[in-house]
Every structure is written in C-alpha cells, then in structure tokens.
Design goal:
The chain is an alpha+beta fold. The protein is built from 16 helices and 17 strands. A hairpin with a 2-residue loop joins β3 and β4. The longest helix is centred in the middle third of the chain and has 44 residues. Keywords: ATP-binding, Kinase, Nucleotide-binding, Phosphoprotein, Transferase, Two-component regulatory system.
Amino acid sequence: MEQIENVFPDRVISLEHYNQEMMTIELENIRHNFLEIMKQQQGMMFKLRKENGQFIHTLCEGKLLHRMGLIPEQVVGMDLKGLFPTDYAEDKLDYYQRAWQGEENVTYTGELNGIYYLASLSPIRKDGEVVSVIGSCVDITEQKRLEEKLKKRNIKYKIISDSMLDLVALLDKNGEVLYASSSYEKVLGYPSEKFIGNSALESLHSEDICKVKKQISNMIESKTPSQVELRYSHAKGGWVHIEAKISPVFDEQGEIEYFIAVGRDISERKRTEELLRRSEKLSIVGQLASSIAHEIRNPLTSIKGFVQLFRTEVKNPLFIETTLEEIDRIEEVIQEFLDFAQPQISKMEIIDVKMLLSQVLTLFSSQSKLQNIKIVEEYDQNLLTLCGDENQIKQVLLHILQNAVEAMPYGGMIKVQVNKHEANNMKISIVDNGSGISEERLKKIGEPFYSFKEKGTGLGLMISHKIVQEHGGFIEISSEMNKGTAVSVILPIKHSVNSDR
C-alpha cells in the first residue's frame, strides 16, 4: 500500500479530497433536508447558546414561528431581551437558565401575538458540559380557546348555581360530593368547600341515612330520578329540613356516572304545617276542655260546700282537710282548662325585655341558689324591646324557666339569651345543662295532656304555645340526652301599639 501511495501520491491526495467533498455535500444535503423538515413542521424548533451571560438564538424554524408573525432572520442571533418585551423575556429567562444548568425536559407555556404554545427545553452536552440548549414548541391555541370557552361556560353555570337559593350538588356513584353550590353556606351555615370530597350522608340526620341509601339503591336499579325529604345539621345547631330531587347522569354506554341533587329548604313550610296541626289540636282540645271544666265545676262546688259543713262535725278533721286540699287541686286543674279554652284579651304594649327577664329571674333567685344553679344572662343590647302582652309573655317565660330549674335538681347552669333571629324577630332562649330529653319524648312535647311531671297536666306548654302563636311567633325546642335542653321563644319585633286584641 505504501508503495502504491509512493508511486501515485497525487492521486491518493485527490481521492481524499474527493471523499471530503462528497462528505461535505452529503452533510449539506442532510442539513438542508433537516431544515426543510423543520420548516414544514406545524410546531417550531429552536437552538440557543450562552454568550457573555446572554442566551443567543442560533436556530429557529417551523410553521408556528410564522403564525407568530416572525421569520428566522428576526430570531437567529438575537438574545431574549432584544427579541421580546422585557417582562416576557424575564419570565422565560428562568426556564432557559434551568435547561442551561442541565435540567432535562423543562416545560412551560406562553403566548406571543395571540398564539399560545407549549415549549420543552433540553440541554445538549459535549464532553459532559452543556454547550447549547434545544427547544421545541407545539401550538396549543385551539386547546386554550376551548379551555377558555369551557371556563366561561362553567363561570356562567356557577353564577346561575350560586345565585339560586336551592342546594345544587354533583355526586359520584359512591355518594362523594364533587361540587356543592355556594347556597350551602346560606342554608346550612357551612362553606360549600366543607362538603366537597366528603360523603353526602356525612351531615345527615341519623334517622334519614338508611332512607336515603335505599332511595339511591332504588334509583340505580330503576335509573330514574327520586325525590326525598331529609334533615341536614346546621352550623349553629338544629336541623334544616330539605326536600331534594336526585337525578342520575348517564355515560355514553347508558350507565350511571354521576348524580345531580337539587334541594330546597322547607323548614319554614314544615314549621307552618306543624303550627297548623297544633292549632287544630288546640282548637279541639280547647272546646273539649271548656265543656269538661264546666260540667265538673258545678258538682264540685256542691261537694266542696258539703265537705266544709262537715268540718265542724267530724272528730278527726285531718280527713276533711286532705279532702279539701284535693278539691282545691281539682279546681286548679279546672282553672287551667278554662284559661286554656277561653280566649284572652291581650293588652298590647311596649315591653322592656331586660326588665321583664329581671323580674322573672328574681322569682327564681332563691330556688336557684338552693339548688346550686348558676344563671348567666347574655343580651343583645340592640334588641331589648318588643310589642306584646307583658303578663302573657311573663307567664310563658316563667313556665319555661320553671321547667329548666326542675331539670337540674343537683345544680348546673342556665343561660338566658336574647338575640336576633332572621330578619325581624327576637329570640329569647333559655338553655340548661340538665338531663335532657330523648328524641322520642321531644316529639310529643306540646301534645295535649302530655307531661314529664308526675302531677302535670301538659297544659302549661300548650298554653305557652298558644300565647306565643297569638303574638305571631313560635317556640323551638332542642335537646340532647345528658347535655341539656334549649327552649327558644321567637317573637316578631314590633315597636308600635295598635289596639287591644
């Protein structure tokens, strides 16, 4: 071989030169083809290096570049700040720096001249050192437009949903809340975020859970909407009655994917229905009580007269005295019947609630001290007058406070509170921490002749209900065993006296 090279040295050099030229041509063809491919791609590719602390673009091609309103000549040789507005350049500088420091697949999104894009940067290394950064971009303008359109639609639906007083919720097949409208806070007192991610059964009354589970099970089987009444706990205590319609949402295969629940607060309707029911009972019981009282009173008066005559003739007067005491007790019961049955004329006047409560509490001061009961007063100073019959309201408060004291024979605490209830109502609450009332017995409170007391007639609370109802208000009772009972008298705030009723 050496001999051949010695004989034809010029020819060998020419062959090497030829090979180099061919390689150069081939590389140029590859480069040209690569650039053509880059030009024809829908996205964009670019390359940059760092010179004197600045990132200089050394390559930039692709149809996306032209859609942005630029050409390669405007980009190549330029640094970020020379090419883009300062705030835009500074925003992208951090991504470029991360890739230059060796981080792989640095991604970010951007917008230029109305075109949205997703960019990915990767470092190019030589002998272990980063010598340049290559980047690729894809056009996501259409995706962004769809996202924006969807976002606007969601905002529109959210505004509609949030402006509704109805409760709107989206549930998955397991009953987990995926969305809850802002009306949840208005109706239940909790922010809607509290419900999202939790079971829809979480805040339900224990008695309603099985009923709702059964309804959902039937709905899954029948694939038809279902309507149910249930009770949700309120942030401030008590229960809110909700009437809800639950409808299934189907996927493309016709299988249930979600549930949409739309509920409405029907607490006021329930309260009105209860007042009507109680009013009807009171009317019937009132007529019956009046008739019985009059029928018993006349012969009882005669019996009492004869017993009094015998008092002087009987050797052992103890039996006579006992008989007279029992007759007096019967007369008291008859009077209760008559008080309940006969319409009372209300003397409407401006009542100083603080003074009225002071008078009522004074009557129990001795008894409360003997029983080691502490009484705490909490009054809203802006709500201390209302219009009503002072004696009747006092009678109601005396009865409620007496029950609270009797519920704590071994001591405890009673809170007397006055605050605002909804728009134009005053709420007078008497809260004890006594033994409490079971839920079963709580339902019967206010029923004719139902009493917890051994010698009670059950008329005391019925009369109280009637008085408060005649004043345009109502009584709320809540209780928990071994924790206590809260009785609230809700009365409309009126500061004008019209006439006696």
